[in-house]
Amino acid sequence: MTQAGPPREIVLGVSGGIAAYKACEVLRRLREAGHHVQVVATRAALEFIGAATFEALSGRPVLTGVFENVPDVEHVALGRRADLVLLVPATADLLARMAQGRADDLLTSTLLTARCPVLAVPAMHTEMWEHPATVDNVATLRRRGTVVLEPASGRLTGVDTGPGRLPEPPEIAEFARLLLEWDASNGGGERREPFPLPRDLEGRKVVVSAGGTAEPLDPVRTLGNRSSGRQGYALARVAAQRGADVTLVAGTIADLDPPAAVDVRRVQTTLEMRDAVLDAAKAADVVVMAAAVSDFRPASLSAGKIKKGEEPPSIPLEFNPDILRELVTQDVPRRLVVGFAAETGDEHGSVLDYGRAKLERKGCDLLVVNAVGAGKAFEVEDNEGWLLGADGSSTSLPMGSKAALAARVWDAVAERLR
């Protein structure tokens, strides 16, 4: 987690579930980003993770009861000075007590006094997550402004699997940073910037492509484009947490955990990506082509490894299909298509000039334009650029996390869907 701006004050609330062990990794990431973290644990949480672990990682005593540090009125002071309250894990019991407005321990008392963003990351068995009581509690909390993330689907305790798994710590830290960036952009006062995680994509089907593609030259070598996949993954993560039904078509990527509540389909070549994207796009309301697709592929595949000779071999290339253009030319009413352009400027035009030309050439509804080069766009955690619209609009996307850029893209998409 990269720090954006000065250190912030975070309350990390830990409740009593087996996923509490992952809170330690979240805490470590928050501290490495330079933030001050106060752990407030329930007594049940300390049955899973000892206080010494949290204290060693945070550099502060763990707080649990309302009768600790009574002269400092901690149950009020903690919430007042926090820039973010992060709940990892948020158990079914904690969500129920939050929805009821209970104040029967230090953590729930702190939540009642907090006026900063509150991010709850649920973890529980599938039956508990899908129970009508939990569904109602989550809806109540979201209506009040608490961000309740959709859980991941996967291995739970024992042999059980299904939705209810805690998202991985890097994803939790990414959303924590997103909310801190939003809070800082508003100066902690009147909210001027759009909220990054509204539930405005519920009922929408979204397809996102991410990463690069690799075209085999021989059994060893490939031809491809640089891409870590981070921006596409951020787009998928944010869309899922805004309520969308998301399919992520992932090519060659860095070592990234699958986003929570997202259907991931893995591909390698451009032709495989084309087939997967077009198949998923049949029922989609929005398609975002964030992948760095290889424009060319070898005209033929060598059955054996190409040997190193005195002269480099000449390898004929042929064009790959233009997936973005194919999506645009399909006769699918009311479907939005968003493209990405990685550009460099030269004596003939700027990055933005080339981006506008690509938007006109491709015919998509929106185009994200990134300047690329050393330390820009590819294989880094932050990003910036411009969002161009077919209607002639142009919006600057300031430097920030890739999740923040994703949120601004979805703001524009949601506005057009309305």
From TrEMBL:
Region spans: Phosphopantothenate--cysteine ligase: 206-418
Reactions catalysed according to its record: (R)-4'-phosphopantothenate + L-cysteine + CTP = N-[(R)-4-phosphopantothenoyl]-L-cysteine + CMP + diphosphate + H(+); N-[(R)-4-phosphopantothenoyl]-L-cysteine + H(+) = (R)-4'-phosphopantetheine + CO2
Residues of the Flavoprotein domain: 9-174
Recorded GO MF terms: phosphopantothenate--cysteine ligase activity; phosphopantothenoylcysteine decarboxylase activity
Domain DNA/pantothenate metabolism flavoprotein C-terminal: 201-415
Cofactor binding remark: Binds 1 FMN per subunit.
Family, similarity comment: In the N-terminal section; belongs to the HFCD (homo-oligomeric flavin containing Cys decarboxylase) superfamily.
Role of this protein: Catalyzes two sequential steps in the biosynthesis of coenzyme A. In the first step cysteine is conjugated to 4'-phosphopantothenate to form 4-phosphopantothenoylcysteine. In the second step the latter compound is decarboxylated to form 4'-phosphopantotheine. Catalyzes two steps in the biosynthesis of coenzyme A. In the first step cysteine is conjugated to 4'-phosphopantothenate to form 4-phosphopantothenoylcysteine, in the latter compound is decarboxylated to form 4'-phosphopantotheine.
The protein's name: Coenzyme A biosynthesis bifunctional protein CoaBC
Species of provenance: Actinomycetospora aeridis
Gene assigned in the entry: coaBC
